[in-house]
Specification:
single chain, alpha/beta, TIM Barrel, 10 helices, 13% strand
Amino acid sequence: MTARALPILMYHHVCPQPGLVTLSPENFAAQMEYLAASGYHTVGCAGLESFLRGEPLPDKSLLITFDDGYLDNYVYAYPILRRLGLHAVIFLVTDWIGERGEARALVGESDAPSTLNHRQCMEAVAAGRADAAMMRWSEVLRMRDEGVFEFHSHTASHTRWDKRCAHTEEKSAALADDLQRSRSTLKQHLGIEDRHLCWPQGYFDADYQRIAAAQGFTHLYTTQPGTVIVGGEATTLPRIVVKDKGAGWLASRLRIYQSPLLTRWYGRIRGRR
């Protein structure tokens, strides 16, 4: 059988410290172990592109994504995915990724670093201490070279320019510079001409889409619920917000989002609430 839909899962933190947009390592491990044991096939962004073009993917295909590039993704999520042979994507806020320092230890190793909850991460970044909250390029390269993760853009600064700028022209210029810097940094460190962009806080408008296209981005990821279908719109890709729950919760959601028909039905039910 081949996939009728391609669900995209959205994660942020995998961390023992509870907080906003956070899964415990135990719940994340249970979810990933369910995927591996149930025959799910994790694809990368190239697989997504081919699916949109109508090329077949195996049944039970999905795309796992993380936003921002937090240190806990490296310390906790990476070893779990590596152990299970799963693949995932991280959308990096490139200004926040550390330029210096060797790759740090992983969970279970004697000198593994402490990780912060979401609020503490934002405070550390704002105070110029991003290295305490975010990954380093040395860690990004390790994860990529082992084939566990691929990396794409979440902008350079994670700024909502629509809120920061009073005029459309100012907003457009600021966003264009932000996206150009992100693409340039990814090319410098990873050697890629990136085409995949995830919007900060899921916000976009017509100006955002136009500027992203001008900067070379062809696939744009949102926080809108839904699933990807063959021939679907590459510039408004939906994702599934994953909750801090066990494998049963994820299994129930995937039964819906693997079916375009059930996805539409579930969307109508949610809309009535």
